[in-house]
Design a protein that fits this description.
Layout: H1 8-17, H2 25-30, H3 35-40, H4 43-48, H5 55-68
Length: 71
């Protein structure tokens, strides 16, 4: 299934299994982050909207979003 069609649960699984940052799974679900929204997230959103304070964790998530984005 292509990323824009991912459900909130698909994003949660991706965050846990691919990004390996399970501590943020609940906040992604609570904020209704599905595949379409995931592709729009930028580091600023992760910090301000999802309150991910760790710069390294934000960088890791944004790098994985880029790797996951279809060409």
């Amino acid at each position: 299934c292509q990323v824009p069609h991912w459900s909130k649960e698909d994003v949660e699984t991706w965050l846990v299994e691919v990004v390996q940052l399970p501590q943020y799974a609940q906040i992604f679900v609570e904020n209704d982050v599905d595949g379409e929204l995931l592709l729009w997230l930028r580091e600023r959103n992760l910090q301000e909207d999802l309150e991910i304070t760790s710069l390294l964790h934000r960088k890791k998530i944004t790098a994985q979003i880029v790797r996951t984005t279809p060409a």
